[in-house]
Amino acid sequence: MGDAHLEPMEANIKDYVALATAANGQIRALAVVNTDIVDEVRHRHQMWPVATAALGRTMAATAMLGAMQKGKEKVTVQIIGDGPLEQIIADADGEGNLRGYVQNPHVDVPHAEQSKLNVKKAIGAGHLWVIRDLGLGEPYRGGVPLVSGEIAEDFANYFARSEQTPSAVALGVLVGVDYRVRASGGLILQLLPDASEGIAIMLEHMVMDLPPISRLIDSGSTPEEIIEQAIGELQPKYLHRLPLRFTCSCSRKRCESALIALGVAELEALIKEQGEAELTCRFCQEQYRFTKEELEALRAQIHRDQPTQ
Ligand SMILES: [Zn+2]
Predict the structure, then answer these.
(1) For 54-76, what is each residue's pLDDT tens digit?
(2) 251 CA distance to ligand 1 middle (Å)
């Protein structure tokens, strides 16, 4: 702990990813706290607890995937299941921008054993997809069928099968009785190519002995302290600390492009039938209104740009 090379954090940013190597480079370790961001999303969508738990876990893993990328390289995670949540989407980049939403934020399912939120039931059977956009044209897309539906194990399965990297993943969200997020975050431990078999076995035991991540965060643990708790004996060396922020890339300009993309006939119908348009961003719930005159101006713009239509 207390590595002298780390840049000082802005005092009030509790949400960040810590990245380390351990056991002389045989292990890569990432840990994240994303409590405040998940609570902001929870508030924006007025989410119910099981949806919040599913989204918080997904966003924790996505933030760590983002921290493995460089700069503006973006990672999108999509979990599509046949349960009532239907779909979870989160994206993050190497600069710490993070956002996400669930298709149906108002979902309730019977609790699992010990009154735990039943994320598995809310998601159902389906797939986990990871899309990496490195800004080089066609994004890389990999996916696996869901093996558990509790998300952490599904990411471990994704790393093993799709990226050939044996990994242990722990994710946790604690939702209060008032529906607010008390704690959210996660841990990813990965065996790097030259890891010995002994280290692999040791890692497995260390992860099994780890208290629930949400409890560690609820009692005030930082990402570095989570890594210390998990693999402190393996002498982690901290490489990077990435502060996270909730950012949405939506804008009025993007909405205009979407309306233009409808084409003249669709836009015409919209003007005639509704006389206005209101677009809501699925990620941040920001609303963009367009009056009849503004829609007519967009229609005129299509005529100007594509005079043959
Ligand atoms: Zn938005």
Answers:
(1) 999 999 999 999 999 988 899 99
(2) 7
